[in-house]
Amino acid sequence: MKSAKEKMIAGLPYIDSEGQLFKERQYAKEELKRFNDSEPKQLKFRKQIIQKLFKATGTRFFLEPPFRCDYGYNIAIGENFYSNYNCTILDGAPVTIGDNVLFGPNVSLFTAGHPLHFEARNQGWEFALPIVIEDNVWIGGHVVVNPGVRIGKNSVVGSGSVVTKDIPADVVAAGNPCRVIRNITEADRVTYDQNS
Predict the structure, then answer these.
(1) Mind telling me the catalytic residues?
(2) Rounded to whole angstroms, how far apart are CA atoms 16 and 157?
(3) How many whole angstroms separate alpha carbon 95 and alpha carbon 89?
């Protein structure tokens, strides 16, 4: 018989009756309290906490405190990841974030879900579905990404969006529910000069 943790990670319905998941969430909260309460100059200390907590990280990443997650061990971030203030990741299922991804303030990724009918919900059943954010994605402030969503490479999700379905590569998408507005084209290419 599978444990609640095995069911959770596999995307199966589960109830956390054995307490293992509660203990693991408590551990993550303790580590994140240390992270969130650290002094601004303690960059190396913060980085070490995230590297210990997450499944995988690139060598270059930066998360502005406060940051919150359920477990940490289901989160993998790529190279050159940046998350602005108040990011929340409910990582019951794997959350995979590619290279060169930017999060605005108050971005929330929710792998967790609950049954629609109240009886099962009241019994404590829940589930978790993976979230994938591919390379070069920019997610604006106050965006919510729901369970089971994939956001394609190079895309931009506008501020305040609620992403309930997959977003393809190379598009601008926004809204509640989030929808593709247009493709990103060569006309969007801008060259900046650092010397100007």
Answers:
(1) 114
(2) 33
(3) 8
Q: Are 9 and 93 in contact (CB under 8 A)?
A: yes
Q: Which two tokens stand for residue 157?
A: 């999700």
List the structure tokens of 161.
Answer: 């969006």
- For the stretch 149-194, pLDDT in tens is 999 999 999 999 999 999 999 999 999 999 999 999 999 988 787 7
Taking the alpha carbons at both ends of the chain, their separation in whole angstroms is 64
What tokens appear for 116 in the block? 């629609």
SS in 3 state form for 75-89?
EEECCCEEECCCEEE
For residue 96, give both structure tokens: 């995979």
pTM, entire model: 0.94
100 HSE (CA, 13 A, CB side): 8
> Residue 77 carries which side chain, given as an amino acid letter?
I
DSSP 59: S
Q: Quick check: 92 and 111 in contact, CB under 8 A?
A: yes
Buried b (16+ CB within 10 A) or exposed e, 28-56: beebbeebeeeeeeeeeebbebbeebbee
| Tokens describing residue 100 | 């060169």
Q: What are the tokens at 99?
A: 């290279």
